[in-house]
């Protein structure tokens, strides 16, 4: 083979190899689209909830529930995928949220939507059907079955002030019960904020004017006349997060937690000395009856982390089991069991079956276990008791944890009283990022024009494009700080400092930084879920930055792992912060690639494109967006193949992207790489052999010519 031909083949192999490297092992392909009617919104609280992915009738095929202006629709994401473009999804069913007899549309706009199972099943072949719960703007709570037939409805508008907006709202659906005869448990919670005067309609403005004139006319004191009418209407109710617990199928209210419930008597409240200057925000707030400090449940609090609140959709409920922290381990006394059965299952130690020492006894024990019927084993391990005041089984939840804008609140499942409430600084990420058992806080600030942030426990504001991580609540120490932008005026590349803040200031343009996320960092050790990982940042320039803290010990080092410039950028428009019109909502998600798995990738969604990166900073895939996102991107499996797909919500439509695997790309790239090595060796050997053979031919020709 000639050297020229071999060189051409070698270049072609290099081109194939690098193209395979850029392709990645997976991609997201355009699947389906569902168009919706959009109407201009006056306030951010009026936006519709995101779609919900669920298998409603238990047939193994997933449906997508979409909330519209005054109705719900169930669409089928199983479409015949076109080679290019989106295929329109088919509407399976729809139901109106308007009253049956009185056609009044006011207050019927959905603000929260959820689906889940309320009936407990003990056999795998039994069909698992789900219910749908929706909360409207007028605080109507409605429950529908899998066929969109209304099961029950409740109105709690009287508990909230008039003329206010939904600030936060969340729904929890589970198959636990609080009373004999119930089927499932549904918990709905939310808080309100007083509607600003600029967003009132003419009728409400006229009503407020009449009330103001009436108060001035009949008021005897000047103090009442000077009182703000907006605060008078709220009465403090809008600041409180209220809870309502219902039986799943019947809608019977089991308990309520409102602003006036579980309040301590101010006359019997304990007095704090005036010289106690170490009181924090948690100590100064008025506590509910039975409420204690969350530091008594420190391990349980860490188990419900991470906490990250940036949008109203981040308000969520989580069922958990809270136990008080044990400072010292009790020494095991002879003849007593240190692990009560109610807290931890006892080790299986049947008399006559010493499985640790005697191998014959181990075989006999396995044979005895196989002799037990499968039905008995299922009934033994799938039994879940009813939740009461005395529930202490560690596998049964006893609290519902609300992740709110101001922190977390644990509410007792059986009674509805507050167990503990932990106020956390707004913004950023709250998690145990170094695995030392202490809650940490990571936050970042953008460029010029963004809000100035003074970290808790610090005296100076963060400089532009800077991130900081602190440890402890309240703050005890600083873990690391560093820049999250690629360029700064005094250094070309970012650096990390372990001490105090730098003194230089960035003179760049307006840069917005999203709340960071945590991605698990495999180091060979077992860590608590949601702790000990890489901290990922994304700014409006599309720059993705990764930090990592090496080890949970003192004087730990922070490692700036990598920083990439991607196409996931967006335009920053601070004047549209409180409005929904044409507002771009970027996303930064720790993306699990399989259903129920741990996050294995990083999804950064900008204004025009979305990028998927690996935790090591390598590029996996990217795809164009058909429209800008008006809500955070949803990661769920709507194709039923056990891998995570993506749903994009825009102003006018909902788009589905299906994940497509390329399992042969890695193997084929490996084979091409081996082929390149073989061709390189052949090229070198041919080149060296060609030189020797040409000299030999020249000597032979001279010899033969002389003989003639």
Please render the helix and strand layout as text:
Blueprint: H1 3-23, E1 26-35, E2 52-54, E3 63-67, E4 71-76, E5 87-88, E6 90-96, E7 110-116, E8 131-136, E9 140-144, E10 150-155, E11 164-174, E12 185-194, H2 202-218, H3 222-225, H4 229-234, E13 242-247, E14 253-257, H5 281-284, H6 298-303, E15 307-308, E16 316-320, H7 359-371, H8 374-381, E17 399-403, E18 407-412, E19 418-423, E20 429-431, E21 440-445, E22 466-471, E23 477-483, E24 496-497, E25 517-520, E26 533-538, E27 543-550, E28 557-565, E29 587-591, E30 601-605, E31 609-613, E32 619-624, E33 634-636, E34 645-649, E35 653-661, H9 663-707
Helix pairs in contact: 1-9
Placed side by side, the strands forming the largest sheet appear as 15-20-21-22-23-24
Strand percentage: 25-35%
What structural category characterises the helix and strand content? alpha+beta
Average residue-wise pLDDT? 76
Radius of gyration: 31 Å
Query: What is the count of DSSP helices, taking H or I runs of 4+ residues?
Result: 9
Low-confidence stretches: 219-235, 274-278, 337-356, 373-382, 488-508
Largest sheet: 6 strands, antiparallel
CA distance, first residue to last residue: 33 Å
Topology, number of strands: 35
Helix proportion range: 10-25%
Oligomeric state of the chains in view = single chain
Query: What's the shape?
Result: globular
